[in-house]
Amino acid sequence: EAQVTQNPRYLITVTGKKLTVTCSQNMNHEYMSWYRQDPGLGLRQIYYSMNVEVTDKGDVPEGYKVSRKEKRNFPLILESPSPNQTSLYFCASRRTSGSQQSYEQYFGPGTRLTVT
Amino acid sequence: RKEVEQDPGPFNVPEGATVAFNCTYSNSASQSFFWYRQDCRKEPKLLMSVYSSGNEDGRFTAQLNRASQYISLLIRDSKLSDSATYLCVVRGIKAAGNKLTFGGGTRVLVKP
User: Fold this and answer.
1) B62 in Cβ contact with B53 (< 8 Å)
2) C-alpha span between B62 and B34 (Å, rounded)
3) pLDDT tens for each residue of B50-97
4) What is the least distance, in Å, from the CA of A57 to any CA of chain B?
C-alpha cells in the first residue's frame, strides 16, 4: 500500500528538549515536504526536498531542521522547541514531473505536537 | 494579498442540496489546480484535479477560470459524508520547484 508514515503521532514535550519527527514514504517519490497547520493560518510549508541531499527552506523554516540522506526518509528536527511550535505537522511526498495527475501530493497522518 | 484565498465558511448545507464555492489565486503563471479534502484532524487527500475545460467526478464538478483567476467546486446532492474542509491547491511554475500552495480551506457542514 502506497503511504507516508510519521512518528510519533502525538507528542507532548517541554521547551528546549530536542525532538525528531520521522517521516517515511514507500512510493519512491523525489519530493518530500513538511507542513505545519494552525487554526486560521492553513497549511504552511516548513522545508522541502527535491531529492536526496537537496533541501530548501519553505515559508516558515525558523526553528526547524531537516535532512534527506535517503530517498524514503525526511525527518524533521526541532533542536530547541518553543511553545509557538505547538501545532499539527504533516509530512508529504510527490513526484517532481509528469502529467498533472502525477503532482498528487500524499500526506502522512499528522503529528500533533504540544510544547509546554 | 494571499497567493490562494478561500472563504473559510462554514457553508451549512441541507442534505441533498447543492453547494458551490470558489478559490482565487494571485499568480497568473500558475500551472495547475487541485481540490483536496481534509476531514477534521486528518491529513488532506486529493479530491480532484481541475482542468481547463472543467471536469466532473460523480457529484463533484470543478471549473477553472484563468481570465478571472479562480477555480470553483460544486457539490450536487450533498451527503452527510461530504462534511469536510475543502482545500484549494495551486501549482507554481517549474522554476519555482513546482511548488504547491494551499488555500486556507472552506468548511462545509452537511446537515440532515
Assistant:
1) no
2) 9
3) 988 889 999 999 999 999 999 999 999 999 999 999 999 998 877 777
4) 12
